[in-house]
Write a structure and sequence with these properties.
Layout: E1 3-7, H1 20-26, E2 32-35, E3 40-43, H2 49-59, E4 66-70, H3 71-79
Antiparallel strand pairs: 1-3, 1-4, 2-3
Length: 118
């Protein structure tokens, strides 16, 4: 199964900048696909997670946190339809964030923010 690699805090505000397409080419032996400029990659022929992490580190010009997930985890997330029952609005963008670790406090999601009047 494919792995999905997330790089934390890259290509944001001029910090830790690099060309993700170049990294994907440098890791070509693993059949890596770059997904946008935010440091997300799909690895179709991954070695072990440990070796994949080492290969990414070897080709980055800076240190950053690297999160690697089994592609099946993301498929299950999509199949669970996390936005089911929520109306689609033109002024809203739906997204999913990847946490670096287990949060120290549990939050019931989704949560609502107070209106600007409050």
């Amino acid at each position: 199964m494919a792995l999905v690699v997330f790089l934390r805090g890259v290509n944001v505000g001029g910090n830790r900048t690099f060309r993700p397409s170049n990294l994907a080419c440098e890791l070509g032996r693993f059949d890596v696909e770059n997904i946008g400029a935010a440091g997300t990659f799909v690895v179709r022929k991954p070695p072990s997670e440990r070796l994949m992490r080492a290969a990414v580190c070897e080709h980055l010009p800076f240190d950053t946190e690297i999160f690697i997930r089994d592609g099946r985890d993301l498929i299950r997330l999509c199949e669970s339809d996390p936005f089911d029952g929520e109306p689609s609005r033109s002024d809203a963008v739906r997204f999913v964030s990847v946490l670096a670790g287990t949060p120290s406090n549990s939050v019931a999601l989704p949560f609502a923010l107070p209106s600007s009047e409050n």
